[in-house]
Task: structure prediction
Amino acid sequence: MTANGWFQILLFFGLVLLVTKPLGRFMTRVFNHERTFLDPVLRPLERLIYKLTWVDEKHEMSWKEYCVSMLLFSAVSMLVLYGLERLQGFLPLNPQKLGAVSSPALAFNTAASFTTNTNWQNYAGETTMSYLTQMAGLAYHNFMSAAVGIVLAIAFIRGIARRQMKTIGNFWVDLVRCNLWVLLPVCIVGALVLVSQGVVQNLKPYDTAKLVEPMQVGKVDPDGKPVVDAQGKQAMDTVTEQLIAQGPVASQEIIKEFGTNGGGFFNANSSHPFENPTPLSNMLELVAIFSLGSALTYTLGQMTGSQRHGWAVWAAMAILFFSGVAVAYWAEARGNTLLAGTDQKGSLTQPGGNMEGKEVRFGIANSALWATVTTDTSCGAINSWHDSFTPIGGLVPLANVMLSEVVFGGVGSGMYGMLVYIVIAVFIAGLMVGRTPEYLGKKIEAYDVKMAMLVVLVFPLVILVFSAISAAFNFGTSSILNPGPHGLSEILYSFTSQAGNNGSAFAGLTTNTPWYNIAGAMTMLIGRFLMIIPVLAIAGNLAEKKYVPPSLGTFPVTTPLFTVLLIGVILIIGALTFFPALSLGPILEHLLMMAGKAF
Amino acid sequence: MQDVLWIVVTIAFFAMCIGYVEFCDRIKCVQ
Result:
């Protein structure tokens, strides 16, 4: 580890802290329907949208109506994306003349992936998706799925803040205001900044470049499998030209990070120079990933009238973030112990440490930082290959997702995931002192805890069941490219990432197969919607409750003790649930590596 | 044909979710 590396990590976190208060305060004003500096421009547009869509902005919804509206919106959006993928060959904005997404199962997986804010990609964007699909299908979902997450967190916060009310807001109004006031303005400015750094933004056909030196490359069939000759050797091709993919990248790149979506325009995601060309663009994209999740803690404090509680939650997230990044950075900077005797120290002539699968433009500190940030949140964008991390370095992103991505978290989903953990934490605190738990003046009763347990149980259930099936049958194991514990880590990471709606891949697993497309799609849908429904049920139930003033026996949720208890609950639930699986994957792999065996 | 299958699966999943909404609401009544 170097001082420069830590300076960049601290600079990143300082920038996140800097945007937390203004962005959090702005979101409070937007969702409380208070006046903002953007109102003169956006209010007429908002009214026009309601007029065209017959939305009554004064109408307030119960949690059930809010939830059903969200489900219907998501269902229609998913079907439209599926249609776009399958029909893109007949539609405009397709200069490369790409045909339909070839497999219906792949189209289904991708539609589920982008609807759920996961952005798991079993395809390469530049060779599969037309510009129309990228813009009207994928980027549209980047905005909408992010907005859905944010408005659900806001609805939960309203449930805490409201007293004896049966409503938690209007889904359509929240969705429109989130897009118009929060996401679009930041993304317009952010896209222009990225263009200034070299991110491309055009609709032209791909460029062709003549190689200075022709290259011999292994021949592969359309499924990506090596073509072998009669002697069993891989057939070779001589390549003299290279296609350089183009497209409307900047406009998709910024929402990909700001909305914690993570789906790359190109297959190489944020390690591609047209998505993330400079150290400055790298830093801006990192800050964009954390900013909304961090700001929502401030919004929580403001809307519930307890700013200190907002900061106590923020502190729990910050401690978990630094714990993760410190371990990942240490593990990667330390290098590979199997290369003992080789100089792995950073110097003027080499970056040192484990540089396999990492971009030299970003180095180890920025790769470890990105891997931590992208999995603390439900982003899933990558700038290095997690599969090439050391076992302990790779354990950090995996563990982050297993903790339900509540460390600043996916936009909205991190906040409502954290609120569920808070319900469990105050319930446990109540058990310790033998009285009915309270949270910000609301009694936490049996129904709230039952719903919280439904949320907590669905997540490991879907991951462990699908991982176990994949590890037990040939249709699952035949996709593994690395044997032993590393192969199990690949499967486990795949389903964890999809259930957590993260979308980053460990790689090393061929997932464009019927089993992984279908099981993955179902994992993403269950991981998103079956968790959201009980969350909203808690919100609706809390909104109906009377306010109970704090007394001497009330467990305070604004103190360091609360922060420590919250971290403890998160770690214990995560550790107890996933430790057996982790011990057979990355932990065993680390021990074997120390004994001299690699996979 | 497979297209119809995945469209039906999508609709069925969201219909099941709406049923789950009702389930979560009913639990409250049976407490």
Notes: The CA atoms of residues 19 and 291 of chain A lie 7 Å apart. The mean pLDDT of chain A is 92. Residues 207-244 of chain A form one domain. The longest strand of chain A covers residues 207-218.
